[in-house]
Amino acid sequence: MAxxxxxxxxxxxxxxxxxxFDRVRRMSASIAYKEYDRKRREWRSVSWAGLGLEMxxxxxxxxxxxxxxxxxxxxxxxxxxEWIIFEQAAMVLDLVVVPIFPNENPExxxxxxxxxxxxxxxxxxxxxxxxxxxxxxxxxxxxxVILLEVKEExxxxxxxRDDSRLEISKDWLPVEGGPLHERYSxxxxxxxxxxxxxxxxxxxxxxxxHLNLLSNARAMMQMxxxxxxxxxxxxxxxxxxxxxxxxxxxxxxxxAMVAFGRSLENFDHDLVEVxxxxxxxESHFMTRLAGKLNxxxxxxxxxxxxLFKLAIxxxxxxxxTEQKRVRxxxxxxLWPMLKGMSTHAIMPxxxxxxxxxxxxxxxxxxxxxxxLFVGLSINVLQGYHLTEAGGVVxxxxxxxxxxxxxxxxxxxxxxxxxxxxxxxxxxxxSMALGYMGKAADEDHVFRNDWLFTQDMAEYHDQHxxxxxxxxxxxxxxxxxxxxxxxxxxxIISDVLFDYAMVVGQGSSLVAIVVLNRSIWNAMAASMGLExxxxxxxxxxxxxxxxxxxxxxxxxxxxxxxxxxxxIISDTAWSVDNGLLTPTLRPRxxxxxxxxxxxxxxxxxxxxxxxxxxIRSELAGKANQIDVKDDDIPTL
Length: 635
Description:
Elements: H1 2-7, H2 16-26, E1 31-37, E2 42-47, H3 48-64, E3 72-76, H4 81-92, E4 96-99, H5 106-116, E5 120-123, H6 126-130, E6 144-147, H7 152-159, E7 166-168, H8 169-172, E8 190-195, E9 205-209, H9 210-224, E10 231-234, H10 241-254, E11 257-260, H11 267-274, E12 278-281, H12 283-298, H13 302-322, H14 335-343, H15 348-351, E13 357-360, H16 367-375, E14 379-386, E15 391-395, E16 408-409, E17 414-417, E18 422-426, E19 434-436, E20 446-447, E21 450-460, E22 463-469, E23 474-475, E24 481-482, H17 485-491, E25 497-505, E26 508-515, H18 517-526, H19 531-534, H20 540-553, E27 563-568, H21 588-594, H22 596-623
């Protein structure tokens, strides 16, 4: 503990680049990051000293660009050491960093670059720039595009292109940098513009200061008890505000090591190879892990599967006892024995050998999913984040973890719930400076030092329970309103479904689902269905099977209306076709537009059937009533 305390960043650190300087000075010989070398197919380590030397080269290259103070420089890359180096070099020169998800669709990239007025863009390689081909000439302010890596055989072709903005990083960077020195600047100065993922519309550019991000990082470092011995897997891109705060700035404060995930698709492989002790993620990635766990279990004999399920129940009982949610539970006594018997051979293949804490702040995790992981002693702490609030706003704690809630507010945050259930937030240090560009006219959400969100929540037992965004809530007959994300999370916990979105009207709910084609094809073949039949939702076997899986996934959520029908998406959902955000969540408005005709037809039919059922029930009751002539009213 003494070593951790010695190497923890000083509370006096005022800027993010000062934090970096402090870490290089204190721990120059220590490992800062691990990243995967695709050529050698191995994980390689990067020291703080090496990072500092590289940063001075990038600072020199940016200085030669002669960009004015406050100029916007964008970065659209996978997580890697150059992401850190570029940002730190830019901040030293008072430039404002604008991160963009590398898998973002070209139209949104163009919007972000135009909205912030970016003058320079750093991308991974020429293919990343070519993917944006349709927008190359639509961003006039963009003067320079730096390609981090270009293969030797591609260099001549790149240099011969008729695009003066392109430059290969090895030609752009000076051979040597100058000395590493600390800069003294205003902590309230604008550091970065972070664009929201835009699940319900255009992304908004949130302007965040050094103080905003440092305040949230300090709070998270303390809440997570990050130690120098920890390894954090950064698998979401640093354009994601929570990943940036919790897997970049907070570990830098604590002197912990960070491993850069290779890609979202390699998430489960990286977990096993890196063996992180802390993971910051979103709920749908935990659902993917649950699917992998189920597939792993299928390869074990019946007795092993039964013992594993028994271990989950025993672990959950032990958790409830430790949390003092129940006084006594006999299953808790079986946990030590079952843990060793049933989980030691399986869990390292799913999450590695060291994972002790998972932070999930995206969509709510289904109760079944929480029970699964917590029952296996993986401490899942759900929370709530807002880009406008500089990162994480609330989080469960180890000692008081209500897995169905989003926890307590972090130190410094004040939260109030309005009469209609909306969340209002205040914090003297973490609140954003406002919105950028075209979203600036929506600055009315910041009023009298309070952020007026459209998120809904309520308090129970001093814990905050998230009810979704107001504009995303479904309102059914009788005035019932609820958040469909809980239903969606439960549906995709079944490995048959890759994605799901629930829509509703009147008394009916319809689920739009994306089937996992390999699993569904195998199921269809086992039922003797031809390819054409397997894709026909009107086929009785197809309808009954898929509806059976949906209802089984939702059986514990009996407080919600029943899903009455489903729509099978005839296309995969992706970021490129606009149906997913870069963090692989459905873009709700786009999904509604794409399936508008099918949604209308399905809901209309479902409501007609519901009305017919009610009329039939009333008619049946009327036939059971003995009506006498003198009971008939007269005029």
